[in-house]
Model the fold of this input.
Amino acid sequence: MTDIDGYGGSWLEARPDLRSFRDEVRGFIRSHLPEDIRRLVAAESMELPRDYFLRWQKILYQQGGWGCPNWPEKYGGPGWSFEQQFIFERELALADAPRLLSFGVTMLGPTLIEYGTEAQKARFLPPILKGEVLWCQGFSEPNAGSDLASLKTRAELKGDHYVINGTKIWTTEANIADWMFGLFRTDSSGKKQQGITFLLLDMKSPGISIRPIRTFDGGHEVNQVFFDNVKVPVAQRLGEEHKGWGIAKYLLSLERFGIAEVSRSLQTLGRLKSILRRQRADGSSLMSDPGFGTRLAAAEIKLRALEAMERRVLFGPGGPESMGAEASILKVMGTEVQQGLLELQLDAVALGAAPDLPAEGQDAPHLPPEARYAARAFFNMRKTSIYGGSNEIQRNILTKSVLGLE
Ligand SMILES: Cc1cc2nc3c(=O)[nH]c(=O)nc-3n(C[C@H](O)[C@H](O)[C@H](O)COP(=O)(O)OP(=O)(O)OC[C@H]3O[C@@H](n4cnc5c(N)ncnc54)[C@H](O)[C@@H]3O)c2cc1C
Done:
């Protein structure tokens, strides 16, 4: 926990019900979050082992479906108000607990609830809720990232199943996932947004192979996935054939919002301050260095502005449902703030941020504990302005909607 309260001053003061909810959540996380998981999350490495994700999800499931805070009670979620969900996610971040399972819990769950048949909901929702499976997202392809609708990986209907051929790229966690939800080309005759179908497929299906992609932080979280005559039963199609684009747009709007990451940036800010306060050999600290002080103040002001905007958008009259261009502003600002804080952290630890890090659990007595992952976190988080709709694309959306330009 940091010196950051995480709630923008007086927000909770008028709401004793939410304050006691926050205390309950905070107490639970503090007493139930396993220390090995907490330490790895605190290192700001996205690359948690599969077991860590699932172990934590199971713990939350046993606490009344807390692992799916955005799901209604009917499907095993806690049925929380939007404010409660907000507080829960903030407390997870402030305690260095893992993020919600983004593919299964945040994206696919609500999409299945919206578009799935009753049989699909009964089959696919409980294993996500209970922490039994991990999902990955097979949307992007070589030459179909920002221009996603250009995707070419084909799914051909043959009797009661589709046969898939082609490749997906940048598939996060495909190497540890059990299932993939993806978009596949079922018709090329009309507009490219038409003729795309949304399928759910078992990663153990014959014909799937996975090639790891090493990222420049040295990690392995993204992959290229190849499909060679992979059979997918028609029962695993979400929505109608050729109508996957509308479902994908719904799902992507859920992803884009989460990327603002205000809570995690608050936690990074707290960690950064503790690094800056460290005393050097001559008794001074970087906190009193005018260069660092100015940069820290600028970063914190930006973060506080983002936090205020996030609250206004989420708890304003229309609530999150009414969010339009604001989602793009949150994404662009959120990722800029996040990357700026990590850059400042990297500069603060300077040579201590050796990219060649000792393995987890090994001692690194020459480094302060916060410094060990600064380089890795900095390089890893460059991705946030690329995925979820790159920041350039978000700026295009903003230009069109705010300035009315086409
Ligand atoms: C770490 C990481 C994890 C990812 N995980 C997943 C995943 O799990 N599943 C998945 O499906 N995808 C995933 N992606 C893919 C991600 O969604 C794409 O990288 C993203 O959509 C950009 O596509 P691209 O890489 O093909 O770049 P391109 O679309 O080729 O863009 C290249 C550059 O050109 C700019 N650009 C493109 N078009 C425009 C335009 N019209 N106007 C202005 N600028 C433009 C872009 O902003 C970018 O800077 C991941 C990506 C990364 C980096």
Q: What stands out?
A: DSSP finds twelve helices and eight strands in the chain. The radius of gyration is 22 Å. The mean pLDDT is 89. Residues 290-315 form the longest helix (26 residues).
